[in-house]
Write a structure and sequence with these properties.
Largest sheet: 5 strands, antiparallel
Order of helices and strands: HEEEHEEH
Helix content: 40-55%
Strand content: 25-35%
Structural class: alpha+beta
Distance between the termini: 10 Å
Strand order of the largest sheet: 3-2-1-4-5
Radius of gyration: 24 Å
Number of helices: 3
Length: about 170
């Protein structure tokens, strides 16, 4: 007897396929977390050079869906010099963005980097265009946690879907 797809099998199959997207997103979040962690560790051995702050400001970010949710994002741009070449970068550190709930906190942070000031820039000697100002990873714990939850949830949905697909076949045996 050949088992064909019926309504419950189609639902199980669709549920399993729909679980793949959150699982892939979870894997991506874990990849980003561990890549940033690795790059931060590598940056401790990077070369240092001098640079200059050419942009230093705080931008107000208003949530598109809820205008009462506001954050403040320091925006920096700096120039630095390696082997007679000039580079520009906006990266402060690896990890999540340096955003703050209050303008005061964002301005306190950005005071470290006033416009026109000379700074130390850490750059990858093998790829000088990769540079940072702070050799510590910004917290990505939420991304790590959400990534793990998405993967575990996807595995659970896939297992439930597989059980739903196999149950009719096993009952026929």
């Amino acid at each position: 007897m050949v088992n064909t797809l019926n309504g419950s099998n189609v639902v199980s199959l669709c549920g399993g396929l729909c679980a793949l997207l959150p699982g892939v997103l979870g894997i991506l979040l874990l990849f980003l977390y561990f890549r940033n962690k690795r790059k931060t560790k590598e940056s401790r051995d990077w070369a240092a050079t001098s640079g200059n702050i050419i942009r230093s400001e705080v931008n107000k970010i208003v949530d598109d869906e809820d205008s009462s949710k506001v954050s403040f994002l320091p925006k920096l741009e700096y120039e630095y010099y390696v082997d007679d070449a000039t580079y520009r970068s906006k990266r402060i550190s690896f990890g999540s963005a340096h955003d703050f709930a209050s303008r005061q906190k964002a301005e306190e942070f950005i005071r470290q980097f006033p416009m026109g000031s000379q700074i130390t820039v850490y750059y990858d000697p093998n790829k000088p265009k990769d540079a940072i100002l702070i050799r510590e990873m910004r917290s990505m714990t939420a991304g790590l946690f959400v990534g793990i939850l998405l993967i575990v949830g996807s595995i659970l949905v896939l297992c439930i879907s597989l059980i739903g697909l196999l149950t009719p076949w096993l009952l026929l045996q």
